[in-house]
Design brief:
- Helices cover 17% and strands 21% of the residues.
- Strand 2 and strand 3 form a beta hairpin.
- The protein has three helices and twelve strands; from the N terminus they run H-E-E-E-H-E-E-E-E-E-E-H-E-E-E.
- The protein is α+β, with helices and mostly antiparallel strands.
- The chain folds into two domains: 160 residues, no CATH class; 45 residues, no CATH class.
- The chain has a five-stranded antiparallel sheet, with no helix packed on it. Strands 9-4-11-12 form a four-stranded antiparallel sheet.
- The protein starts with 22 loop residues before the first helix and ends with a strand.
């Protein structure tokens, strides 16, 4: 099944129903079906959330019965505008992947995940075979300096940069849940047991910010 993978005690769990998808293709198809059903989708529309309605940048008011907060890295801001979850803040981390080069000699036939380490709020570095057949190893957990900071110093805002830096320093000083040791768990050193990093190189795709929500002043535990 996975001839180049092994576990510390020789055991593993196999899930025959696990699969990979092309997320962009799935979202595009969902959007097409919703539009066919008469749903209007507004992209790139800034809005201010208020109890009972959303006010857009062009002063349109959209009423709602139930609001689904799927704002990603901005979910805490939307929640706070409604008076919900005010003791929680998003602390963004960036997940960076490596791509396994062709001819590396490492066989990955599906998805290989380590058992989560409950001391840390991350799933752990894993191996993923994409729909295209490309194998990715990752992600790391690098603090992002902006809510939309996908690559380098792009998309940084002074407000976010100051607030995120202050929270990172606070987490480091308090060392709640071993925060200081998190950087040591990134990269190839954290690959699932028995999977070699030989032949792995940086993937060209940008890092993907991962959101962690935690109480103010405490190390985040739950993903949003």
């Amino acid at each position: 099944m996975e001839p180049d993978a092994r576990s510390a005690d020789g055991r593993a769990l196999y899930n025959a129903e696990t699969a990979v998808i092309d997320p962009a293709a799935v979202v595009e198809r969902l959007a097409a079906e919703l539009r066919e059903g008469g749903v209007e989708i507004r992209l790139g529309a800034r809005c201010v959330v208020r109890p009972g309605g959303l006010v857009t940048a062009n002063s349109d008011t959209l009423a709602y019965g139930h609001l689904i907060n799927a704002a990603g890295a901005h979910a805490d801001r939307m929640a706070h505008a409604l008076g919900v979850g005010e003791r929680y803040r998003i602390l963004p981390f960036k997940g960076i992947y490596h791509r396994l080069r062709e001819g590396a000699g490492v066989r990955v036939n599906g998805l290989i995940y380590p058992v989560p380490d409950l001391r840390f709020p991350f799933l752990g570095v894993h191996c993923t075979r994409a729909v295209s057949g490309t194998v990715y190893l990752g992600p790391t957990a690098v603090p992002a300096l902006g809510r939309e900071n996908y690559r380098g110093l792009q998309d940084l805002s002074p407000g976010d940069l100051g607030a995120i830096t202050a929270r990172l320093v606070q987490q480091y000083v308090r060392n709640t849940n071993g925060f200081r040791h998190l950087p040591a768990r990134g990269g190839a050193a954290a690959l699932p047991t028995g999977v070699s990093a030989r032949g792995a190189g940086p993937a060209p795709a940008p890092g993907r910010p991962r959101r962690r929500a935690g109480r103010e002043g405490r190390h985040p535990r739950a993903a949003v």
